[in-house]
Amino acid sequence: MKTIRTALTALVVAAAGLVAVPGVAQAADTQLGIDVGNIAWEQYTSTNSDVVYRLQERSGGDCNFYTGFWADPNNDRYDNSGTGTCGPVSPGYMYRNGSKTWDDVKWRARAWCADFAKFAFYWGGAKYTGLNAAAASFRTYGINNGTWHGRGSGYIPRKGDAAVFDWDGNGTMDHVAIVTSYYDTTTDGDYYVVGGNQSNAVTHVLHRNWESSVVGYASPAKK
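Given the sequence above, the corresponding structure tokens read:
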């Protein structure tokens, strides 16, 4: 999707607690961010029947492919989470015995927005050490790698950033999704994310940079 970059005008939204820095312009997308964003976007838009099948929960209760990817002991990238299987099996790429293989993935159940975002970071070539099944791990990752941009810092998100959300403002990170495009032709700062576990599926959703639920953005770090 086309990303429009213009200077961000000075904006104060008192209700949202945001003070944008006057004259801040969006930095150019990085190649790493483009690669990460493209992974998320390509999952959402794929016409491959196996990928299309994985984009929605099955069997109820958060049963999904992306958790299955990380929790499969046969995957070289197994995260040692140990969650049990929940029914469906569908193929996908993973590394087995050092070789990239298109093979069956046993689906597993847990809240999976972070598993999807971590999948995009991983296949996009970003560092993924420290990321886990919690949305909060992306905030910690950003802080530890010097790529965290909190809401109110004047930062304009870029493609491939992980947007982290706290829906009820209680300090608990509730959701994470991958920025795929940003439009700053209005002071709203519209941007789109592709995320997992959004209405029990992988979906493409509009957000605004000044929303009070936005905690901040973790840009992907190089390995």
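Residues 31-45 form the longest helix (15 residues). Try to locate this feature in the token string yourself.
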